[in-house]
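Review form for a predicted model. The reviewer records the input and the model, then writes brief findings.
Reviewer: anonymous (R2)
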Amino acid sequence: MDGNPDDASGWKTKLKQAVAVNKQLVPLKLTMLLYYGAVSLYLPYMTLQMIQVGLNIEEIAIIYSVLPFVTSVMPPIAGMLADRFHCYKLILIVIVASVAVFHTSLLHIDARISAEVQSSGSDFETPAEIVCSRLGAVLRFENYTCEASSSREMWTVDWTPSQCRPMDCHGVPARMQLCLSNGNCTQIATGSTSVLEMDALLEVLDVTPWTGGENNAGGNCTAQIVSAQTDQTRIPASLLCNCPIRCPAVAAPISSELDNNSSLSSSADLLPVEQQKELDRLKHNRGFWLYFILRIIASGSLATSFSMLDATAIKMVKKHHGDLGKQRLFGVIGQAICAVLAGIILDWTVVGKGYPDYSITFYLADGMFVVTVLLMSQLDVGVEEHSEATKLLTSISKLIRLIDVDIFMIMMLLLGTCWGFLESFLFVYLTELEASSYLLGMTITFATPPLVRELALEISAVTKCRNLGVLFDAGLTMGRQVKSAAKSAFYHLRLIARIRRFLDQSATKALVHAFVMSRLDYCNSLYASLPDKTIICLQRIQNAAARLILRRRKRDGATPLLKELKWLPVKFRINFKATTLAFRCRLSPPLAPVYLSSLLSAYTPARSLRSSRTTSLLVPRARLSSYGERSFSFLGPTLLNSLPPTITSSTTLCSFKSKL
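Model under review:
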C-alpha cells in the first residue's frame, strides 16, 4: 500500500491531541455541564410559567423590555466589587446561589384571577361548568334553577381554557375545537390563560339536580350548548373535544330577563361581585410587581454568573494551556440534554395532573446548582486584576469613542431584540399549536449541533502575523519585531566577533553594515513613537556594533564611539528617515511614491499670518497616541514642522540632508 508514514503519524498525533483530557480542567468541564444544564431546565419555559401564574402577554412584554438593561448593568457592577474586595470566588458562588433562590421563589407567586371575576359579566352572573366530549358540550349550572322549556336562550359564557381539566383522556393530550357544519374546525389553545368569551345558544335538558361523582358539585340545571360563537368564529359552531373535559365558567343571559320562577339558591352566601373584583385586582397587581422584582434580580444574577464563569474559564484555559471551545462545548451538551429532559418531565406531569408542573424542573435545577457550587469552590477562580478596573465610567467613555465598538453594540442590540422576541414568545406560539413540552425541549436541542461543531473546531485568534518580514502583534506594540531583530542582529555580531582579529576596521564596518545595521534600518519607520523601553533594545545592538568595530571594551561608553563613527542613535535614525520622507513628499514634483505624498498636504491658514510665508505641512488631528500619532500622516508633518526654516527652506534633497 502506498502512503507516507509521516502523514499517518501526523494524523495519529492530531487525533491523540483532540481526544486528550486535561485533568486540571475536568472540574471546569463538569461545572460548565451542570450549570448550563441546570439553567436550561427552566429558562426556556419561563414565559409559559409566567402565563401559568396569571400574567398576561402585556405584562410579560413589560418584564422582558426591562430585563436587557438589568442584564447589562449587573455584570460590570459585580466585576467592580470582585476587583475591589479581591473575593472573586465568593462573589461568584453568591451570585450562583442567588440565581437558584430567586428563580425558585417565582414558583410561590400567584397572580391569577378567578373565573367569576374574569368574566365580562352582566347584571346577573352565575357559576357554571362546561362539560365537553366528542358528541358535543353541555353547560351545567351550580346555583341556578330553571324550568324545562322548548325555547332556546342566548347566554354569554366566560371561561379560561387553561383551567380546563380532562376527565378520562387516558394520557392523550386534550384538544378542544369549534367545528362548523361544513366540517371546518378552529382549534382552541387549551394552555391559554386569556379569558374566552363565548356566546352560546342553550337548550335546557334536565332540571333535576345532578351529581357528577366525587369530584363534582351538585347543580340545578343542565343545558345543551346548541351552537357557540367566539371572536375566532363569528359563525355558529359546535364545541367538540377529543375526550371528556370539564371547564369552570361564568354564565349570564343576554337577550331575556330571568324567569320569574328562577332564583339563586345561595346568592346570600356569595361576596358582592364588585368587592371580589377589587380583591382579585389587588391580588393580581401585587403578584405582578412581586414577580417583576424577583425576576429582575434573578435574571441580573444569571447574566452576571454567565459573565464571571466565562472569565474564569478563560483564565483557567490560559493557565493550563487548554482550549476554551472544548470547555464551552460541555455547556452546550448539558443544555441540549437537560432541555429535552425538562420536556419529558413536564409531559409526565401533564398526564398525572392535566397541566405542566414547572416546580419539578426548578427543584431539579436547584439540586444541580448545589453540585455546581461545590465544584466552583474547588476551581482556581479569578481573573487578572487591572489598575483601572474600578474606573467604570472612564472605561465606558473610551469604548464609546471607538466607532467600531459603537457599530458592534448597535448590531448586537438589533440581533438581541430579534432573538429576545423569539426566545420569549416562540414557546407561547408553539403551545397554542398544541405542541408538547417534549417538542419544545427538542427545539433547544436541535439548535445545538451548529454550536457543537463550531466549539469543537474552534480556531483561536492569532496574536501575531508577518508581513514583508515584519512581525505585527495584536496591539501594534512592535515588541515581537524588536525582539526578533535583536536576536538576529546579535547572532551575526557574534559570528563577526569570531573573525574580528582577521579583519581590519573598514572590512569589519562593511560586514556590520551588511548584516547588523541593515536589520536595524529595515522598516524602522514602524518604530516611531515607541516607548524608550522598546527602543533601548535596538540601541544596545548599535552600541555593541560600535564597540566591535572600534575594538572597545564592554564597559566603555557608547556615545563617543557613535560620534567617532558618525552614527546617529537609533531613535534619531528613525526620526531622520521619517523627516526625510516627509520632505521628499513636499518637494514639487514629489520624490516619494504617490501613496505617501497623498497623505500630506500644505498648511494654509484661514487668514494672512506670518506662518503663511512658511512651507509648513498640515498636521491632522489624531485620536489615540498609541496609533494615530504613530502614523506617517501625523508623524511626518510634526517632525518636519519642528525644524527651523533654514533647513525646511532647502530646495534639494541633498542640501536638506546635509543641513539636517
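Findings: The longest helix spans residues 273-320.
Further findings: The chain is about 55% helix and 10% strand.
Recommendation: see findings above.
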